[in-house]
Each structure stands twice: as structure tokens, then as C-alpha cells.
Specification:
The complex is a heterodimer of chains A (481) and B (480). Chain A has 481 residues and is of the alpha+beta class. Chain A is built from 15 helices and 15 strands. Chain A has helices at residues 57-69, 167-184, 224-243, 289-298, 303-312, 318-324, 328-341, 344-362, 373-384, 390-403, 407-417, 422-435, 437-444, 449-461, 468-480; strands at 7-18, 77-78, 81-84, 94-97, 107-111, 119-130, 134-140, 143-147, 154-160, 196-206, 216-221, 251-256, 261-267, 277-278, 285-286. Chain B has one domain: Amidase signature (AS) domain (Amidase signature (AS) enzymes), CATH 3.90.1300.10. Classes of the chains: A alpha+beta (481), B alpha/beta (480).
């Protein structure tokens, strides 16, 4: 998206990642937000007098895993601060968070941008903090109800450097982080339920300027597309103001999905004083190198590493490698199918093509796809061995999906329909030979590659019912004489 | 039954079947009913529950299921949650708050067989040195009813001194066990920070709050300590408890004596302290002079840190989920404001405001960060001293019990009450206040301070002292 050659947007993101731990960050309540109100609020979550926080080590480990994945410096100690403010859904009157010493320091991720190669975006920090509860305004008339199920659930707040220069880059960065945290298995990635929430800071400056313009913050956007649209609107608003010689006011804005515009939420003129100080209830926890190392060893191959391996070792195109590593489930499916078949390009094309269109049609995730990757691999290995035409493989595939047959059953059935009577095949081969005198000549000159083309033509003519292996033999027989 | 009974003596009575827990508990409840109108040391009584627990204890004892505190009635400072009972911290804010759970130390004591008599009076949210900030009115000093019992654990100290409870729990953030123990002539003890769990103790200043006990003797303090201490997974700052008695009472110790601390005290107090020193010296302990160079900065730094922590700890009282809710206010902000204005007393508000100020942008470094530096220096002073000495001797309080309302208009004078006790909390050290005489018919206590996890030394020196003196065996005639 190009706003004008004159103006350059500068964007940084703050993304709240809800970590998918069993229990909350500082209490043993289940970290389940979507239950009946307040069923997962124990005495610690309710801030009953005398209760104390106890760190959930699993949340710490997940945060460290994220840090390792973005090659960040991991803090040697895990410390927490109190951030004080009064709000009805903040039971303690302060939030336990990390200010001075975030568990994850500077790191980076590669963001794939449209039409361009990957761009390295700096991650400033990522820190652990507890979420607040929810104020519910529509449940009881004229009353605000409080649901504390979410209070105390663990968040990892990821802050990027202002390295993003377009709404699509920002959306892509958000998507990339989504891929990473779901890939690592530290977040369920459910955007609709608020498992990842994005705040975008944006300013606009004249191209070539070093100094940043006044920035505004768009709060709480929970989809890739909305981040892109909200930023698009906001950048145009900034540019319009600047071109009229006006200045952009520092403020926090909300994106209205219905109207596709941002609206002022509050100004920054009275900056809040959160009175941060180290939480005396939580002593610093040492993070040993051994711990970091054992977490590193437990981690799956990372998406960008896998992507590059697909390109360099499996000789897949960049675009296909990127699509296959967009989520871990697809990539795992590919890995398992490819282990059976061994023809990466074939398997990739099938997963992104035939499998993908059924997933779209039936609105399934690849995990819900009824055909196991091993079964697909088995079908495709017959194609790879030239025992089965692509069209026949598709028939096998469809049969397995439609009738729940085993691959072997479907293979038998499809083979029965295969034209195997050599008389009929000979007729087809002869017709192909007659129709392509040039290729026949080339074949006789030893250009064996042409055989593939001729076999293809014959399969086409047989409407996919001919066995390529058999065809190949007949071709040899008829042309060698 | 004699008026004065230690835990140990009560156990003997039960062991020898001279009295049952039911009889003992009934007797203490009767004393409370008889005397406590004057003392106001208890703010709630658990009569039925106590008698039920006493009967159960008797059954257990009859079956041979005897634990260290089986059938012993005790009082809990109203800062500790006792399940199903009101835990008010003597504040209007929590006047109707019934705890849905029991504090770890309460549970530990119960598990050891103790019977809870009720909750004792205290300064509101443990903020005060005279018990005068309680919404239930001040507890009185049983040695002189016109005088304060000290604070904030004033109710516990008064009750143990008057023998209407054999022992009570207390909490000590800046001296709240040791100063009232000294004012009332009982043994006040708080162990190393972290040894007694804070879970279920309503927080005042988390890094300084120490649960502890007020008892008739050092021996009783040790029995209580063994029962209530121990690592608690519900308190991240808790640590394993050291053994209470691996030093024999006969061990000769080197005792540090910071002479300068004694210089400004009234003659009658120094006299008593001097006597105590001589007794200990006479037992073959060596007294050596030590210096605590940053001592004078402790009170100021303490009020910065404790108020800062309190300002956040007390932010949960917003009138939404429990506690006092104002009838006024239609928005959250105004409801919260009214509830807090009505629910908190003046001293609590003063400390919340102070704490809010010292944590504010532009003041944080000048106050909070600086106070933490002072805290480290104070701690270092002690650590250095403990390279040379086994224990440190010190006054417990600069005065004896003063008259009610004497310091009403002088909050900073009140804060100075804590000058000898505050530095110990800043360093998280174990300490004990032991009765060592009288000045103008009011009890005087001296303080022994140990190194981290040096509880056993305190117990052995304390026992040593109490085998040679009988100050701890005296009781006021308020009972007569």
C-alpha cells in the first residue's frame, strides 16, 4: 500500500499473548476464561485479604521458550513489579507485571512481506504479566457486572521496535507472531476469544526525516485484517492533518470495525502514574542457563528454520515453503506425508491444492482432515513410482474421503476401472503416435524425455484410466520396432 | 488452677489429668468475660467453637493422640484469617469481613492441637504503636488501665499479661510484637523473615511483616514456634524453619552491646537493662561493644518502605468484592473514594498517602530507592556485627507504657516508639523482647536480636535469663 511518496509511516506493535497454561499466573485457578462468570476465581484471584501470589513456573517456561525462539537475551532473574491503578475488574488494585527487567530482552523475527523478501523486525522486549478481569455491561441492566475468570491469567506482552512501515507489514508481523506462538504451543491463537490482542503505535514522518512524528496508539485490535485497516485509516488521517499543516495529537484511539475508522478514546495529556515498585511478595526467581538449555532442547523446529530447510534441502519454492510453514499443523502434516512419499514437491502440491480445497470447502482445519498424512503419502508414493496417474490418485483420494475406504481398497477399486486390456491401450498408443509424428521422430533420435510427454497424452486420452507403467511398455514396444 | 499458667504448665495439668482442656478453656473464657470489659483485649470470642475444639482435644488426649498444643487455648491477633470468623484488622473497612480460609500459621497451630479463643485487639491494619487506632477502641495495659498496652499487637500483649490467654499470636512489622511485649511485661518473639508463613495474615508491609507470638515465657515461645513455623508453598517468601533448640542453654555466648543506643533512655529504664546485662555477664557470657552506624536512619527509611508497600497492599479495599461499601457514589471512582474515605481511619489514610507520594513519578528515586539503600546498609551493619557476636542486646522501646492519648497529636513521636525494633525488621532478623524489670511500676523489656535463622540462640539465652529471673512470672493485680 502506498500512501504517497512524500510520507512514511512508522509502526510498532504491542501484542498481548495469552499463554495457554493450565492454571493462572499466580494462583491455582484454571486459566479458563470462557466459563460461567467467576467460577474460576479463587481467594487469590478475588484478592481476599491475606492471600499471596505464587508464580506458575509453566508460564515462565513458556515465556522463555518465546525468548529462545526470537533469539533474545533471557533475563538471569525473573522479577515482578506492581503497577497500581484502581479499576473495578482489577481486584488487588494493582497488576503484577514486569517493568525494569523483562524476562525476554531484545530479539527479532523475520516478517515476510508481500512481493519482498523477509524483513527483520526487532522485538524490544516481552514480559510476563497477569490479565485483569472483565467488566460486563450488557448482562444486568444499568449495572456493570464483574467477571474475574480472566483475572490473573498469564499474558506475555510482546513489544516490537518501530520497524514496520506499512499496514500490511504490521499485519504480517502480527500474523508471524501468531504463527510463532501457536507453533511453539504457548498460546491457542484464538483471535476471536482474545487470545492475542494487538495495540499499534503509529506515526508519520516525511520520507528522509530522522525524527519521528507524533504518534497515536490504536488499542485492542484482534484480527490481522483489522490491524491493517485500522492502520490504513489512521495513517491517512495523520497525513491529512499534516498536509493541512496541523499536528497530530498524542492520544489513544479505538478502531470501530463497523465504520472502519478509528476514534479517540483518551488523551495522553494527563499521563497516568502507575507507581511501579518491585512486588515484595515475589522474590526474584533465578533463571539458570540449564533451564534455558533444557527449554531450548524441548522446542520444535522453528517455522523459519523449517521454511529455509524446505527451500535449501527439499528444493521447494519460497512461496510454497512459506505456505507450508504458516502453521505447525500443516507443516507437520507435510512432514509426515513426505516421510512416506519422499517427493516433496508432489506432496506439497497436493497439500496446498487438493487437500487445501477440501479444507476450505468443508471449513476444516488440517487436524480435522479425515485422511491421515501417512495415507496421503501412500497414495502419492504410487504416483511417484509412476504406478498411478495424478488423475487416478485423485480418484483414490476422493474415494477414501467419500466412502471412508482404506487406501488399499480404494487403490484396488480404481485399478479395476483402469484400462488394462492391452488391445485397448495399444489403440490409444497408436493414435497418440499417429498424432505426434515430430515427437516420435525425436524419440527415435534418442530423446527419451519425450516419452513422458507421449505417456501424458495417452493418459489424457484414456481420461486417466490408463496405467502409466503399462503405457510406457507399449510405447517402447511400438517404437522400438 | 493457679492464675498464671504457661503452656508448659497447662500441658502438665492435662497430662496429669488435673484439668481437661474443656475446664481450662472454660476458665480462660470466664476470665475474659470477667476482666476484658476493662482491658478490651479481645474483639471477638469464639466461645462455642473453642469449647467444641476443647472437647475434641480431650478426646484426642484420652486416646493418646497428643500433640504439643493439644487442648491449649490461644488468642489470634485480628490480623490473621480464621476460617468462618470475622477478621477485621480492627478497621471499619473489614468490620463485617468473615474469612473464608485460615492463615497457614493458624492452621499449623490448630493442627498442633491449639484451641482458638478469639481474636485480639490491634491498631487498625497493624498501623500504630499504642492500639489506639482500633475501631473497637484501645486495649488497656493491665498493669495500669490508664496506659496503653503498646501496639500494634496490644490486645495480644494485654491478654497474655493479664493471664486471660496463655499465649497469643501477633504480627511485627516494625516492632508490633516486641514493643507491646515490653509494655505489658510478657515475652514477645518474631523469627527470621520467611520462617513463619505470611499467607492469611492481612498484609501491611509485605517485606517487613513478621508473624510471631506473645507468651508468658521463652519456653512457651519455642513451643509455639515449633508448631507454627515452616515453609509454606502458598507464600513465595517463606523459607524452611531452622531447628529451635540445637544450642544448649548452658552455652556461653558473645553478646553485642551497642552502648550508644542506651544513652538517651530514661534512667529507670537503663537501670533495668543494666541489671539484665549484669545477669547475663554473670553467667559467663561475654559482652562486647558494637557499632550500628546506620541505626539513626532506620525509622525514616522504614516509614518510606512500609508506607509504599501499604499503599499498594491496601488498594484492594475498594468496596467492590467485600468489606465496607459506601452508600454514596454512583460510579466506580466515587464509590471507591467514598468507601475508602469512610472505611479507613486517619492513621491508615496518612500512611496510604505517604506511600502513594513516595512511589510517585519524580519522588520514587528520592524516597523509595534511597530508603532501600538505607535498608541494605542497615542489614550490612548487622551482618558485620554478627561476624563477631552471637546475639545483640538492645532496648525494646524508648519508654515504658505511656498514657492513652499522650501522643495523639504527635504522629512522628509515635513513630519513634519503634526506633529500637524497626531496624531489625529492615534486616529480617529474629528477635525477642523479654521482661527484665519495672520502672515506676511499669514493665520494662530488653531485646535480643539474632542472626538470620539464629532462633535457637535466642531461645537458649532467653531460657538462661528466665531461669535466673522471675520478671516473667509476675502478673498485674487487675485479676484480683
Amino acid at each position: 500500500m502506498n500512501f504517497s511518496s512524500k510520507w512514511e509511516p512508522v509502526i510498532g506493535l504491542e501484542i498481548h499473548v495469552q499463554l495457554n497454561t493450565q492454571s493462572k499466573l499466580f494462583s491455582t485457578s484454571p486459566a479458563q476464561v470462557n466459563s460461567d462468570p467467576n467460577v474460576h476465581a479463587n481467594i487469590v484471584d478475588l484478592a481476599i485479604p491475606g492471600t499471596l501470589p505464587v508464580l506458575n513456573r509453566k508460564a515462565l517456561h513458556k515465556a522463555i521458550m518465546f525468548g529462545v525462539a526470537i533469539s533474545a537475551r533471557i533475563s538471569k532473574t525473573c522479577r515482578f513489579e506492581r503497577k497500581s491503578y484502581f479499576y473495578p475488574d482489577l481486584p488487588k488494585g494493582y497488576q503484577i507485571t514486569q517493568l525494569s527487567d523483562p524476562i525476554v530482552g531484545k530479539g527479532s523475527i523475520d516478517v515476510l512481506t508481500e512481493g519482498k523478501s523477509a524483513k527483520t523486525v526487532g522485538i524490544t522486549r516481552a514480559h510476563l504479566e497477569e490479565d485483569a478481569g472483565k467488566s460486563v455491561h450488557d448482562r444486568i441492566a444499568n449495572t456493570t457486572a464483574i467477571d474475574l475468570n480472566r483475572a490473573g491469567t498469564p499474558l506475555l506482552e510482546v513489544v516490537t521496535e518501530p520497524h514496520l512501515n506499512s499496514p500490511s507489514e504490521a499485519a504480517s508481523c502480527f500474523r508471524q507472531l501468531h504463527t510463532l506462538v501457536t507453533w511453539l504451543g504457548i498460546c491457542d491463537g484464538n483471535l476471536n476469544e482474545g487470545s492475542m490482542r494487538c495495540d499499534a503505535n503509529v506515526s508519520v514522518r516525511q520520507r528522509g526525516d530522522k525524527a519521528l512524528g507524533n504518534r497515536t496508539e490504536i488499542k485492542n485490535v484482534n484480527s490481522f485484517r483489522f490491524v491493517e485497516r485500522a492502520l490504513h485509516y489512521e495513517i491517512e488521517r495523520h497525513i491529512a492533518l499534516l498536509e493541512q499543516g496541523e499536528s497530530v495529537e498524542r492520544e489513544t484511539r479505538l478502531y470501530d470495525v463497523e465504520r472502519d475508522e478509528t476514534r479517540r478514546m483518551r488523551g495522553k495529556e494527563y499521563s497516568d502514574d502507575y507507581r511501579y515498585f518491585p512486588d515484595p511478595d515475589l522474590l526474584p526467581v533465578a533463571v539458570s542457563e540449564d533451564l534455558v538449555e533444557s527449554i531450548r532442547r524441548s522446542m520444535p523446529e522453528l517455522p523459519h528454520v523449517r521454511r529455509e530447510r524446505y527451500v535449501s534441502q527439499l528444493e521447494l519454492d519460497h512461496g510454497i515453503a512459506a505456505l507450508l510453514t504458516r502453521d505447525r499443523e500443516t507443516s507437520e502434516y507435510f512432514e509426515r506425508a513426505n516421510r512416506v512419499t519422499g517427493n516433496a514437491r508432489l506432496v506439497a502440491n497436493w497439500i496446498l491444492g487438493n487437500v487445501g480445497s477440501i479444507l476450505n470447502r468443508d471449513e476444516l482445519t488440517i487436524e480435522e482432515f479425515p485422511l491421515s498424512p501417512e495415507a496421503l503419502g501412500k497414495i502419492l508414493s504410487h504416483v511417484d513410482d509412476d504406478e498411478l496417474s495424478d488423475a487416478m490418485a485423485k480418484q483414490v483420494f476422493d474415494q477414501v474421503l467419500a466412502h471412508g475406504n482404506s487406501v488399499n481398497e480404494a487403490l484396488d477399486r480404481v485399478r479395476q476401472t483402469q484400462i488394462s486390456g492391452s488391445g485397448e491401450l495399444r489403440k490409444i498408443v497408436q493414435t497418440v503416435l499417429d498424432n505426434h509424428p515430430n515427437q516420435v521422430k525425436q524419440l527415435s533420435e534418442g530423446k527419451s524425455k519425450v516419452l513422458g510427454f507421449l505417456i501424458g497424452q495417452a493418459i489424457k486420452m484414456s481420461q486417466g484410466k490408463a496405467d502409466p507403467k503399462q503405457l510406457s511398455e507399449i510405447f517402447r514396444e511400438l517404437t522400438s520396432s | 488452677m493457679d492464675t498464671i499458667q504457661s503452656i508448659k504448665q497447662l500441658c502438665d495439668l492435662m497430662d496429669t489429668r488435673q484439668a481437661s482442656s474443656y475446664e481450662i478453656t472454660s476458665e480462660y473464657l470466664a476470665r475474659i468475660r470477667r476482666i476484658d470489659k476493662q482491658l478490651n483485649s479481645f474483639v471477638s470470642l469464639h466461645e462455642e467453637a473453642a469449647l467444641r475444639a476443647a472437647r475434641l482435644a480431650d478426646k484426642n488426649r484420652a486416646c493418646g493422640r497428643i500433640k504439643p498444643l493439644t487442648g491449649i487455648p490461644i488468642g489470634h491477633k485480628d490480623v490473621f484469617c480464621v476460617k468462618g470468623e470475622r477478621t477485621s484488622c480492627c478497621s471499619r473497612m473489614l468490620e463485617s469481613f468473615v474469612a473464608p480460609y485460615s492463615a497457614t500459621i493458624v492452621q499449623n497451630l490448630e493442627d498442633a492441637g491449639a484451641v482458638s479463643l478469639g481474636k485480639t485487639n490491634m491498631d487498625e491494619f497493624a498501623m500504630g504503636s499504642s492500639n489506639e487506632t482500633s475501631i473497637f477502641g484501645p486495649a488497656r495495659n493491665p498493669w495500669n488501665l490508664d496506659r496503653v498496652p503498646g501496639g500494634s499487637s496490644g490486645g495480644s500483649a494485654a491478654a497474655v499479661a493479664a493471664c486471660i490467654a496463655p499465649a497469643c499470636t501477633g504480627s511485627d512489622t516494625g516492632g508490633s510484637i516486641r514493643q507491646p511485649a515490653s509494655f505489658c511485661g510478657v515475652t514477645g518473639f518474631k523469627p527470621t523473615y520467611g520462617v513463619n508463613s505470611r499467607f492469611g495474615m492481612v498484609a501491611f508491609a509485605s517485606s517487613l511483616d513478621h508473624p510471631g507470638t506473645l507468651t508468658r515465657s521463652v519456653e512457651d515461645a519455642r513451643i509455639m514456634f515449633d508448631a507454627m513455623s515452616g515453609q509454606d508453598l502458598l507464600d513465595s517468601t517463606s523459607s524452611r524453619a531452622p531447628a529451635s533448640s540445637n544450642t544448649s542453654a548452658a552455652t556461653r555466648m558473645t553478646l553485642g552491646y551497642p552502648t550508644s543506643l542506651f544513652s538517651d533512655l530514661p534512667f529507670s529504664i537503663t537501670n533495668a537493662l543494666e541489671e539484665a546485662r549484669k545477669i547475663l555477664e554473670g553467667q559467663g557470657n561475654t559482652i562486647i561493644e558494637i557499632d550500628l552506624p546506620h541505626f539513626d536512619n532506620a525509622v525514616a527509611a522504614y516509614y518510606v518502605i512500609s508506607c509504599a508497600e501499604a499503599s499498594a497492599n491496601l488498594a484492594r479495599y475498594d468496596g467492590i468484592r467485600y468489606g465496607h461499601r459506601s452508600m454514596h457514589g454512583s460510579t466506580f471512582d466515587s464509590l471507591c473514594e467514598h468507601s475508602r474515605s469512610e472505611g479507613f481511619g486517619q492513621e491508615v489514610k496518612r500512611r496510604i498517602l505517604t506511600g502513594t507520594f513516595v512511589l510517585s513519578v519524580g519522588h520514587y528515586d528520592a524516597y523509595y530507592v534511597k530508603a532501600q539503600k538505607v535498608r541494605r546498609l542497615i542489614r550490612d551493619d548487622y551482618l558485620r556485627a554478627f561476624e563477631k557476636v552471637d546475639l545483640i542486646l538492645s532496648p525494646a522501646s524508648p519508654t515504658t507504657a505511656f498514657r492513652l492519648h499522650a501522643l495523639d497529636r504527635e504522629p512522628t513521636e509515635m513513630y519513634k516508639q519503634d526506633q529500637f525494633t524497626v531496624p531489625v525488621n529492615m534486616a529480617g532478623l529474629p528477635a525477642m523482647s523479654i521482661p527484665c524489670g519495672f520502672a515506676e511500676e511499669l514493665p520494662v523489656g530488653f531485646q535480643m536480636i539474632g542472626p538470620h535463622f539464629g532462633e535457637s540462640r535466642l531461645f537458649s539465652l532467653g531460657v538462661q535469663f528466665q531461669t535466673l529471673t522471675d520478671w516473667h512470672l509476675k502478673a498485674p493485680n487487675v485479676l484480683a
